[in-house]
């Protein structure tokens, strides 16, 4: 082994946390780019933020706008505009909250549900394609590690 290889290997092994997050960052960008290609095939004008909102409401029917703000880590005004846009497009419906009349519960409209189903299927297909050569045991181990990390980040 040459000295330069030894130094590079040593530097790489001591910087493993940075390498891990760099790899995750790269994977997220590839996944997001391919996902947005799939979304464009479903509905060419559907934006990333619209997808995020539709997917959240689809997974949490009856969620409030406040819960969407918390999930999206966005400001209230931005989410209010997004919700208004999704209502105008006919993809969301809202109803008064049962216990808090100031709050509105969000639900997918039939068109929103169709978009949700199509995007969810596209996500599932893409994930399966990207992981097709990774053994099931490795996928389970990766998921366990990512869940562990996510739990630790929630406490940080």
List the helices and strands and how they pair.
Blueprint (H helix, E strand, L loop, with lengths): L2 H12 L1 H27 L5 H12 L3 E2 H8 L3 H13 L3 E5 L7 E5 L1 H21 L5 H20 L1
Antiparallel strand pairs: 1-3, 2-3
Report on the architecture of this protein:
- It is a single chain.
- The protein is mainly alpha-helical and 156 residues long.
- The chain has a domain at 47-131: Orthogonal Bundle (Arc Repressor Mutant, subunit A).
- Helix content is 72%, strand content 8%.
- It is built from 7 helices and 3 strands.
- It has helices at 3-14, 16-42, 48-59, 65-72, 76-88, 110-130, 136-155, and strands at residues 63-64, 92-96, 104-108.
- It has a 3-stranded antiparallel beta sheet with strand order 1-3-2.
- A hairpin with a 7-residue loop joins strand 2 and strand 3 (104-108).
- Helix 3 crosses helix 6 and helix 4 (65-72) crosses helix 5.
- The longest helix has 27 residues, at 16-42.
- It is globular.
- The two termini are 40 Å apart.
- The relative contact order is 0.10.
- The model has no long low-confidence stretch (mean pLDDT 89).
Task: Tell me briefly what this model is.
The chain has 156 residues and is mainly α.
Q: What order do the helices and strands follow?
A: HHHEHHEEHH
Q: Largest sheet, order of strands side by side?
A: 1-3-2
Helix content: over 70%
Low-confidence stretches: none
What is the overall shape? globular
